[in-house]
Amino acid sequence: LQKMERLFLLCSGLLVTTVTSQHNVCSRPQLSGNIEMSGIQRFSSPGEELALACKEGYTPLSGPRKIVCTINGVWTSTKLKCIPKQCPHPELITNGELFYEDTVYQSAINYTCHEGYMMTGESSAVCQANGTWGSPAPECIPIPCGLAPVPLYGMVIYDKVIRGNTVNYGLKATYICNPPYALFGNPVAECTASGTWTKTPECQVVTCPPPESIERGYMSNNEKREFFYRERVKYGCESPYVLEGNVEVVCQENGKWSEKPSCKAPCSVNLQRARILHNGKKIWIENFQPNRVLHLEIVSVYCMNEARKCGYAVPTQCIDGTLNIPKCFEEPSGVEYTLKPNSLPSEIDQC
């Protein structure tokens, strides 16, 4: 009996082998291009269909969405293409930058903020399977500083209106000291990227010694005392001397007075016989009274152009008591000056 059972089983196995060998089955296909299939069976019989779909994050583009197992044990081909989903192009962020290579599924954006700004939100975002970015774009907000420290005996002036107790990166403040204090250090401070202010200057008392007098001049204040920073003293000159330089001197932050002026002397026109031009008028030298030209004033004498037989005026300027007579001038003799005045260069036709 046992021999008969073994023989039956052997015959049955041969039968199955014979039947299955008549029909080729299809093995589970290996699909590429982000395509996935339904079902989990390892083998399919001829005529069976297998539904195709795109993996998460991909969109079908073209081609049938199923394949069929043929009698040859080969799956029919498909032209189905699955392309990655597209996320919207990211917008630029204020006071920052973004970096990315693509905007398709699983692409990433990285955000950075400019110096002096800090980020609120995520520094990166990934394109999701549903075609949206995983997180919204961050904001870059200015790094805040507290109010600028105020030096003793000084004040702060901001370059814009301040509300509250904080200011933003890049804001500048100008320092001013109350007289008689002078400012030592940079007068302008700035809120930095570290959230602190640049160095605060100091206000220190500054004095100057009594101002010096000037020759032939006088001062508006002759007190023999120390003068404070920014105090001023005026100078003047005795007539007919002329003040050259600033009328007023000021006590500077270095403890010294600004440059004081000087009094410059007038000039005399050292001619015996001539007619001169002064302030637009022709004047005989004996009528030029007083014989005086103030410092920096101009007077002209007349010279002869021998070739053209005409006269011309040559100006000369008084410089602190010195008036140089032009070399072309020739003083006439007493006879010419007295008896023939109409022949002088000042009286004939002018060139």
Give a quick set of tags describing it:
Complement Module, domain 1; 2 helices; mainly beta; disordered N terminus; four-stranded antiparallel beta sheet; 5 domains; heparin binding; three-stranded antiparallel beta sheet; 351 residues
Question: How would you describe the overall organization of this protein?
Answer:
The protein has five domains: 24-84, Ribbon (Complement Module, domain 1); 96-142, Complement Module, domain 1; 146-198, Complement Module, domain 1; 207-264, Complement Module, domain 1 (Ribbon); 275-343, Complement Module, domain 1 (Ribbon). It has helices spanning 2-22, 334-339; strands spanning 26-27, 35-37, 43-44, 49-54, 58-60, 66-68, 82-84, 96-99, 108-113, 117-120, 124-126, 139-142, 144-146, 154-158, 166-168, 172-177, 181-184, 188-190, 202-205, 207-208, 217-219, 227-228, 232-237, 242-244, 248-250, 262-264, 275-278, 281-284, 298-305, 310-317. The longest helix is centred in the N-terminal third of the chain and has 21 residues, at 2-22. Strand 8 (96-99) and strand 9 form a beta hairpin. It contains two helices and 30 strands. The chain has 351 residues and is mostly beta strands. Its main location: secreted. Residues 1-21 form the signal peptide. Residues 24-84, 85-142, 143-205, 206-265 form the Sushi domain.
